[in-house]
Amino acid sequence: MDEMVRQWRRERPDVDPSSMAVFARLTRAHLAASRAIEATLGRHGLNRGEFDVLASLRRSSAPYRLSPGELARALVLSPAATTNRLQRLEERGLVVRRPDPADGRYGVVELTGAGRALVDEAVTDHVATLDRLLADVPGADRAGLTAMLAAVERTAVP
């Protein structure tokens, strides 16, 4: 990366390549993190999308239940994509879909005992993987890094 910056500065001294370096490093970090996360979740028989569904339900507090619409919003997915994930998880006995106890006309998705046990194990390993990836970033710097990345994200969203 440093070599790329040096080369651009030599060839185009009128252009500051520092933003290129930032985004190249973000891309490399994202790819490395994605591989590590997929490997961690794979040891639990989950892909990232399935984990996201289970984690969203687990974070919702007891009784670990959300409407399909709430779940789709939490996952930032279309209802169709959410349905596909739910079908796979339901076939594995990790979630159930049932009528809403408050209003039988609407369905809810609920984490099963097996789903809760699996997501609790997976999240422990997932956090350990993320902590390992951030091992060289001092704890005091993590909040600042998070804030900086949030600023980039806000700017990127139209």
From TrEMBL:
The name of this protein is DNA-binding transcriptional regulator, MarR family
Q: Which SUPFAM superfamilies match?
A: Winged helix' DNA-binding domain
Q: Which organism is it from?
A: Blastococcus aurantiacus
Q: Does the keyword DNA-binding apply?
A: yes
Pfam families in alphabetical order: MarR_2
Q: Which residue positions does the secretion signal occupy?
A: none
**What's one GO BP annotation on this UniProt entry?**
response to stress
Q: Which InterPro entries match?
A: ArsR-like_HTH (IPR011991), HTH_MarR-typ (IPR000835), MarR/SlyA-like (IPR039422), WH-like_DNA-bd_sf (IPR036388), WH_DNA-bd_sf (IPR036390)
GO molecular function per UniProt: DNA binding; DNA-binding transcription factor activity
Q: Which UniProt keywords apply?
A: DNA-binding
> What region holds the HTH marR-type domain?
19-154
